[in-house]
Amino acid sequence: MRRSRKWIEDELRTRIRRGDYPPGSRMPTHRLLQAELEASSATLQKAFDRLAEQGFVTAHGAMGTFVATALPNVSCIALVLPEVVGVGPWNRFWAT
User: CA-to-CA distance for 45 and 40, rounded, in angstroms?
Assistant: First the structure.
Protein backbone atom coordinates (compact mmCIF):
# COMPACT_ATOMS: atom_id res chain seq x y z
CA MET A 1 0.00 0.00 0.00
CA ARG A 2 1.42 3.37 -1.02
CA ARG A 3 1.30 6.06 1.66
CA SER A 4 0.01 9.59 1.08
CA ARG A 5 2.28 12.64 1.13
CA LYS A 6 0.46 13.93 4.21
CA TRP A 7 0.92 10.67 6.11
CA ILE A 8 4.64 10.56 5.27
CA GLU A 9 5.08 14.22 6.18
CA ASP A 10 3.34 13.68 9.55
CA GLU A 11 5.37 10.52 10.26
CA LEU A 12 8.70 12.20 9.53
CA ARG A 13 7.73 15.30 11.54
CA THR A 14 6.80 13.04 14.47
CA ARG A 15 10.12 11.22 14.25
CA ILE A 16 12.01 14.52 14.18
CA ARG A 17 10.11 15.93 17.18
CA ARG A 18 10.49 12.65 19.08
CA GLY A 19 14.25 12.78 18.56
CA ASP A 20 14.61 9.77 16.27
CA TYR A 21 16.40 12.18 13.92
CA PRO A 22 18.13 14.73 16.20
CA PRO A 23 18.67 18.38 15.15
CA GLY A 24 21.60 18.69 12.76
CA SER A 25 21.65 14.98 11.90
CA ARG A 26 21.46 13.62 8.40
CA MET A 27 18.12 12.13 7.41
CA PRO A 28 18.05 8.55 6.13
CA THR A 29 18.41 8.22 2.37
CA HIS A 30 15.35 8.52 0.18
CA ARG A 31 15.85 4.94 -0.98
CA LEU A 32 15.79 3.65 2.61
CA LEU A 33 12.73 5.75 3.51
CA GLN A 34 10.92 4.69 0.34
CA ALA A 35 11.22 1.06 1.37
CA GLU A 36 10.49 1.67 5.04
CA LEU A 37 7.48 3.95 4.52
CA GLU A 38 6.18 2.24 1.38
CA ALA A 39 6.28 5.48 -0.58
CA SER A 40 6.99 6.41 -4.16
CA SER A 41 9.98 8.62 -4.87
CA ALA A 42 7.80 11.52 -5.98
CA THR A 43 5.54 11.33 -2.91
CA LEU A 44 8.52 11.18 -0.56
CA GLN A 45 10.11 14.17 -2.28
CA LYS A 46 6.89 16.18 -1.94
CA ALA A 47 6.83 15.36 1.79
CA PHE A 48 10.45 16.49 2.14
CA ASP A 49 9.65 19.69 0.22
CA ARG A 50 6.84 20.49 2.67
CA LEU A 51 9.07 19.74 5.68
CA ALA A 52 11.70 22.08 4.21
CA GLU A 53 9.08 24.83 3.72
CA GLN A 54 8.05 24.41 7.35
CA GLY A 55 11.66 24.59 8.57
CA PHE A 56 12.10 20.99 9.77
CA VAL A 57 14.77 19.94 7.25
CA THR A 58 17.32 21.53 4.94
CA ALA A 59 18.71 20.05 1.73
CA HIS A 60 22.46 20.23 1.11
CA GLY A 61 22.68 18.99 -2.46
CA ALA A 62 24.75 15.82 -2.84
CA MET A 63 25.45 15.78 0.92
CA GLY A 64 21.83 14.88 1.64
CA THR A 65 18.98 16.27 3.72
CA PHE A 66 19.56 17.28 7.31
CA VAL A 67 17.27 17.98 10.24
CA ALA A 68 17.21 21.71 11.00
CA THR A 69 19.38 22.70 13.96
CA ALA A 70 16.56 24.84 15.37
CA LEU A 71 13.14 23.26 14.95
CA PRO A 72 10.14 25.51 14.34
CA ASN A 73 7.72 26.05 17.19
CA VAL A 74 4.42 24.99 15.65
CA SER A 75 1.32 25.23 17.79
CA CYS A 76 -2.36 25.91 17.48
CA ILE A 77 -4.38 28.03 19.84
CA ALA A 78 -8.17 27.96 19.68
CA LEU A 79 -10.76 30.14 21.35
CA VAL A 80 -14.39 29.07 21.52
CA LEU A 81 -16.95 31.68 22.58
CA PRO A 82 -20.67 31.45 23.24
CA GLU A 83 -23.02 33.23 20.87
CA VAL A 84 -24.05 35.47 23.77
CA VAL A 85 -21.70 35.84 26.71
CA GLY A 86 -22.95 33.72 29.60
CA VAL A 87 -25.42 31.84 27.40
CA GLY A 88 -24.79 28.80 25.14
CA PRO A 89 -24.65 27.21 22.69
CA TRP A 90 -20.95 27.37 21.85
CA ASN A 91 -20.81 28.23 18.19
CA ARG A 92 -17.91 30.58 17.49
CA PHE A 93 -14.42 29.26 16.89
CA TRP A 94 -11.13 31.02 16.10
CA ALA A 95 -7.81 29.32 15.62
CA THR A 96 -4.35 30.60 14.86
Answer: 9
